[in-house]
Design a protein that fits this description.
The complex is a heterodimer of chains A (about 325) and B (about 350). With about 325 residues, chain A is of the alpha/beta class. Chain A is about 45% helix and about 20% strand. Chain A is built from twelve helices and 14 strands. Chain B is an alpha/beta fold and about 350 residues long. In chain B, about 40% of the residues lie in helices and about 20% in strands. In chain B, strands 3-2-1-4-5-6 form a six-stranded parallel β-sheet. In chain B, strand 1, helix 2 and strand 2 form a beta-alpha-beta unit. Chain B starts with a helix and ends in an 8-residue tail after the last helix. The mean pLDDT of chain B is about 95. Classes of the chains: A alpha/beta (about 325), B alpha/beta (about 350). Chain B: Pfam families: Ldh_1_C, Ldh_1_N.
Chain lengths: ~325, ~350
């Protein structure tokens, strides 16, 4: 018996990440090869023609799983009945803009979209915020959509998580699928903390700790961290454009694992509403290690946190608290 | 049943044989040329996710770009690593043809000289012939035996012909060109006209050249309805639409997308590339055919010695032209028009063959 289609919203769909993401969704990469989807694509009026071009291409691709496409500039139409919402749209930082300006623009956008989602999305809609500042945009969305369960609003740190796995696999010369359980703590920004203290590698003699195999604490506590933190900038330098392919792919991973569950023994990183675990202030959207099952995420508890890590966890929490204050000041 | 060890060895020639083993598959090498461009960016993500060769087939990606694009190409390589894709076992990013083609089992040739404003067809051919001559050399010398090639860069059919002519050790049947995009567009238009899901429409045909003389033919297409599978010509019951608007919309769809997006189709082109290769290698579903540009054997009165898009089925890694389909006078005239254009392109191409390229 074929499954009922799920409705997936992508905002900012006429942009680069959207263009990379929609064919992945339409091919079942996000929700599984047997899950039909209806795509809702939202963008701003100046992008309406480009958005229609994307819709044309989706029709031209004759995807068997794609049961419909809604391309619109109307946020209500976009949000109606959606089961999954991937918020890629936001105000990008332009040259000369202060942090406060970027924050102010995005706070307005996420407040408005919160209302629309709350009023029109399907019950239990799962939300992933990608647009930066991702954690704070997600927080604003959560605050202004009080009837959306707080557990349903998340932000993307899976890209950083995947980048961390990639760096370790390259360092060790192993397949990336043999590396697991890195953690990205905190803000999807330069204060994120990529933590390998619980990461392992599958070897011919069983799972081994990454720290042991790499045997280079200086690298793990230094260059590894900064490489992952600054990878976005490195991509921009090489491509002259920001990451789209890897961002889209990671967004699919985030939703897929959330909806279909994480494999046994594996945890992933998600920006979620903090409940105070690990001494992180509650009331922030903070990236934690999580497992997923039955469509729900759960923070992995009880991992030992050393002094080095403690400082890092606190620094990124501090930045998020400041962003939260800044965001609220923009609302006044 | 052959032993696993023998199957593994034969699989370097025919990767599909590995499906008969119960071991995890060995990685295959897939080359994408023009990989720093837009279609390349879309397709490498799809390949690395198993959308071209199946979700259980690990791949090593070879990406070729011109020297000027080396930094961009490296950025793509970085992103592929950043995506932590389980199926991706390696990435080679290079501007060296030999390195790019070395050991590859599948090649998608997207790289070519793009059409610029004011360029005539003859100019486009002139620029692309030397490129495809050179790549033919690399293909013949360095690729794995039985490498399957899809030419995407325009003029696709004629680039494929040049490739075939200058790689005589490569079986002609292993070189194809893309008309699957037009085929998929045709299915899309029919599904929109009928208000049915595109997955319920099949067996359109795109005949001829991947150019404005292509002939999208719905006369043998069918659609699944509540009353069973029915001919599209009956369901649409509008001969004028089928012979005129349908044909011109599909022919000109590329321009319509450019007009809307201000850029040419990448998403749908990359997706069609994956469909073309997947069906070729893994086989077409029963009762379904697809369109592929292949080396003509004279079927349907099409001249031999050109690459022409035909309806094909695929099985065990081989394509074969669907024979015996009725072709009416209208179709015949359209098919001849496209064949004539391909003949002209072939003549033009031979004018520009360089005698300086090493064989």
């Amino acid at each position: 018996m074929a499954k009922d289609p799920m409705r997936v919203l992508v905002t900012g769909a006429a942009g680069q990440i959207g263009y990379a993401l929609v064919p992945m969704i339409a091919r079942g990469v996000m929700l599984g090869a047997d899950q039909p989807v209806i795509l809702h694509m939202l963008d701003i009026p100046p992008a309406a023609e480009a958005l229609n071009g994307v819709k044309m291409e989706l029709v031209d691709a004759a995807f068997p799983l794609l049961k419909g496409v809604v391309a619109t500039t109307d946020v209500v139409e976009a949000c109606t009945g959606v089961n999954v919402a991937v918020m890629v749209g936001g105000f990008p930082r332009k040259e000369g803009m202060e942090r406060k300006d970027v924050m102010s623009k995005n706070v307005s956008i996420y407040k408005a979209q919160a209302s629309a989602l709350e009023a029109h999305a399907a019950p239990n809609c799962k939300v992933l915020v990608v647009a930066n500042p991702a954690n704070t945009n997600a927080l604003i969305l959560k605050e202004f959509a009080p009837s959306i369960p707080e557990k349903n609003v998340t932000c993307l740190t899976r890209l950083d998580h995947n980048r961390a796995l990639g760096q370790i696999s390259e360092r060790l010369g192993v397949q990336v699928s043999d590396v697991k359980n890195v953690i990205i703590w905190g803000n999807h920004s330069s204060t994120q903390y990529p933590d390998v203290n619980h990461a392992t590698v599958k070897t011919s003699t069983g799972e081994k700790p990454v720290r042991e195999l790499v045997a280079d604490d200086e690298w793990l506590n230094g260059e590894f961290i900064t490489t992952v933190q600054q990878r976005g900038a490195a991509i921009i330098k090489a491509r002259k454009l920001s990451s789209a392919l890897s961002a889209a792919s990671s967004a699919c991973d985030h939703i897929r694992d959330w909806v279909l569950g994480t494999p046994e023994g594996t945890f992933v990183s998600m920006g979620v509403y903090s409940d105070g675990s690990y001494g992180v202030p509650s009331g922030l959207i903070y990236s934690f290690p999580v497992t997923c099952s039955g469509g729900e995420w759960k923070i992995v508890q009880g991992l030992p946190i050393d002094e080095f890590s403690r400082k890092k966890l606190d620094a990124t929490a501090q930045e998020l608290s400041e962003e939260k204050s800044l965001a609220y000041s923009c609302l006044e | 049943m052959l032993p696993n060890s023998l199957l593994q060895r034969l699989a370097s020639w025919c990767p599909w044989l590995l499906r008969l083993t119960d071991e995890p598959k060995q990685p295959v090498k897939v080359l994408v040329t023009g990989a720093a461009g837009q279609i390349g960016y879309a397709i490498v993500a799809m390949i690395a996710r198993g959308l071209m060769l199946g979700p259980d087939q690990p791949v090593v990606l070879h990406m070729l770009g011109i020297p000027k694009s080396a930094e961009t190409l490296n950025g793509v390589r970085m992103e592929l690593i950043d995506a932590a894709l389980p199926l991706l076992r390696g990435v080679v990013a290079t501007s060296d043809e030999a390195e790019a083609f070395r050991g590859v089992n599948f090649a998608v040739l997207i790289g070519g000289w793009p059409r610029k404003e004011g360029m005539q067809r003859k100019d486009l051919i002139a620029k692309n012939v030397p490129i495809y001559q050179s790549q033919a050399s690399a293909l013949q010398q360095h690729a794995a035996p039985n490498c399957k090639v899809l030419v995407v860069a325009n003029p696709a059919n004629t680039n494929a012909l040049v490739l075939k002519e200058f790689a005589p050790a490569v079986p002609a049947k292993n070189i194809t060109c893309l008309t699957r995009l037009d085929h998929n567009r045709a299915l899309g238009q029919i599904s929109e006209k009928l208000g049915v899901h595109v997955g319920d429409v099949r067996n359109a045909i795109v005949w001829g050249n991947h150019s404005s003389t292509q002939f999208p033919d719905a006369s043998h297409a069918t659609a699944r309805t509540q009353h069973g599978e029915m001919p599209v010509v009956e369901l649409i019951a509008d001969e004028k639409w089928l012979k005129e608007e349908f044909v011109s919309v599909v022919q000109q769809r590329g321009e319509a997308v450019i007009k809307a997006r201000k850029q040419s189709s990448s998403l749908s082109a990359a997706s069609a590339d994956c469909d073309h290769m997947r069906d070729w290698i893994l086989g077409t579903p029963k009762g379904t055919w697809v369109s592929m540009g292949v080396y003509s054997d004279g079927s349907y009165g099409v001249p031999e010695g050109i690459f022409y898009s035909f309806p094909v089925t695929c099985d065990k890694g081989e394509w074969s032209i669907v024979q015996g389909l009725e072709v009416d006078d209208f179709a015949r005239s359209k098919m001849e028009l496209s064949a004539n254009e391909l003949d002209e392109e072939r003549s033009m191409a031979y004018e520009f063959v360089s005698s300086e390229i090493d064989q």
